[in-house]
Specification:
The protein has two helices and no strands. By secondary structure, the chain is an all-alpha fold.
Length: 88
């Protein structure tokens, strides 16, 4: 394995990381923005109001996105194993 292969593997790992974590981060950002807007409009400054809906939405989105995340990680791992087999 030379430097070009290592850089390609690192690039693929970063892309997989963005694909797996990106949707959850975007959902969390949108929910946080909606809750902040709601708090600003109603002037309710309750601390638990920000955490409980985020936790519920993140759990539901994790259940919905889990098959996509799992298939992305499985395909990445298969590519890594193929490279290991081709080296050895």
């Amino acid at each position: 394995m030379n430097e070009a292969d290592l850089l390609e593997l690192t690039r693929e790992a970063i892309i997989v990381l963005i694909q797996v974590a990106g949707p959850m981060m975007v959902i969390s950002l949108v929910v946080g923005l909606v809750i902040s807007l709601f708090q600003a409009l109603t002037q309710i400054q309750e601390q638990t109001l920000t955490f409980v809906p985020k936790i519920v939405v993140m759990f539901v989105s994790l259940l919905v996105l889990l098959p996509f995340m799992l298939s992305t990680l499985i395909s990445f791992m298969e590519r890594i194993v193929d490279r290991i087999v081709s080296i050895g």
